[in-house]
Amino acid sequence: MNSSLLERLATASTDEERTWILTESAISSLAPELQQVTWALAIPHWVNLHTLEVLCPELLDEALELYLKFIELSFVEKFREEAFSSINWRTIGIKRLSFQT
C-alpha cells in the first residue's frame, strides 16, 4: 500500500469509510475497461451479461471477457442462477456512486 492510501485509512473515522477507501482503491487498480464495467454494474441489484451489454454498449465486442473478469472480483457475489450482485459494497458506496460521472 502506498503512503497516501495508508494515510487515508488512518484518518477514516468509521469502518464503513475504511471499507469504501479499500474498495475504491481496488477498483482503481483494475484495467480501465474493467473499471468502467464495475462502476456501471455497481448500482443494479443484480447483473448478468445482458445487463453489461445494455449498460456498456461501447464494450459489446469484449463484453463476455469483461463480464467473466467482473464476476471473479472479490466484492461480487452469486445472486441467483446466472446472475451476480455487487451487494457487498453497495451499502457502503451507494451515496458515493450516485455522484460518480
Structure description:
The structure is a single chain. The protein has a domain of 67 residues. The chain has six helices and two strands; from the N terminus they run H-H-H-H-H-E-E-H. A two-stranded antiparallel sheet has the order 1-2. The longest helix is centred in the N-terminal third of the chain and has 14 residues.
Q: What's the order of the H and E elements? A: HHHHHEEH
Q: How many DSSP E strands?
A: 2
Query: How would you sum up the major sheet?
Result: 2 strands, antiparallel
Radius of gyration over all CA atoms, rounded: 14 Å
Query: Helix/strand/pairing class, anyone?
Result: mainly alpha
Task: Give the percentage of residues in beta strands.
Answer: 5-15%
Keyphrases for this structure?
mainly alpha, 6 helices, 101 residues, single chain, two-stranded antiparallel sheet, 57% helix
Brief digest:
This protein is mostly helical. The protein contains six helices and two strands, in the order H-H-H-H-H-E-E-H.
